[in-house]
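Sync notes, pocket subgroup
Present: LS, DG
LS reminded everyone that the earlier model was apo-only. Rerun requested with NAP included. Inputs:
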Amino acid sequence: MILITGGRGAIATELLALLHADGLRLRVGSARPADLSPPPGVETVALDLTDPTTFPAALAGVTSVFLYASAERVTEFAEHAHRAGVAHVVVLSSSGVLGMLGPEPKDDALAASHLAVERALLDSPIETTLLRPGSFASNASAWAWPVRAGRPVSLPFPGAHTDPVHERDVAEAAHAVLTDPRHRGGRFTLTGPESLTFAEQIDRLAAVTGLAVVHEHVTPEQWKKETAGHIPDAYADALLAWWRSTDGRPVALTGTVEELTGHPARSFTAWAADHIADFTGS
Ligand SMILES: NC(=O)c1ccc[n+]([C@@H]2O[C@H](COP(=O)([O-])OP(=O)(O)OC[C@H]3O[C@@H](n4cnc5c(N)ncnc54)[C@H](OP(=O)(O)O)[C@@H]3O)[C@@H](O)[C@H]2O)c1
């Protein structure tokens, strides 16, 4: 049986549908299982990755796990998983860890937490496969509210590059590594097909939606103030430091999505077209 953690998340939801189509035995875990609506035949279980009392029931009878990166209790999760007989874990990590693998540890709370999860699993006896996506295209969903309100999108670094990767491509890559034994134990950096600045992403959204989507260049301090209710301070600082480091500097791209899925990575324009209703409200 395969356990998919973080069940309410976008990647978990897409992955569940792909694995279900294969007819595999599946269990989906979430901190709020009552909010899940899985396909018929899929078990649901309460699984809070910060609460080890929820681990035994979630892991009973499980052989493979798709794991969201939650660092707080990850060593205990790995121990429980090993005891339960789990043979393979696929970690949804982040390409942010790549900047931390050298001799100089960087001060980046987001990447540090993903790296801690990678290390805990790699140090365990369980075979571990690492998926390291770059920026999700779906981060642009945060712009839906100002776009729908007819307001400019606040950007502290309009010229910062990211490599927007479609959530379906990440889910398809996860499906490939969970179902094809040739990929087990691999480390895969997933990017979208192009490096785009935030300003270019705004332009693509305008072209796809037909709306006058524009951005306003704000200071990092203004942006932190605006997002204070949604993004913890340490993560906001990590994001700002990362965008500062990619300001005017294209991100290195990989062909890993195509290697794992058999098709080129979907573009940001394709993502925007798939999510047009979020921005237009219709
Ligand atoms: N965003 C990026 O650019 C990026 C890049 C690289 C890696 N990652 C990593 O990928 C993972 C997923 O990132 P994400 O930003 O796309 O997050 P997400 O899928 O929207 O949510 C992550 C998890 O938060 C929980 N959650 C809490 N409240 C929720 C709600 N109202 N709706 C949906 N889920 C909710 C869910 O787990 P439960 O169902 O168990 O509560 C969910 O799986 C994270 O570990 C992130 O660090 C993200």
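DG: The mean pLDDT is 95.
LS: The CA atoms of residues 123 and 221 lie 39 Å apart.
Action: DG to write up.
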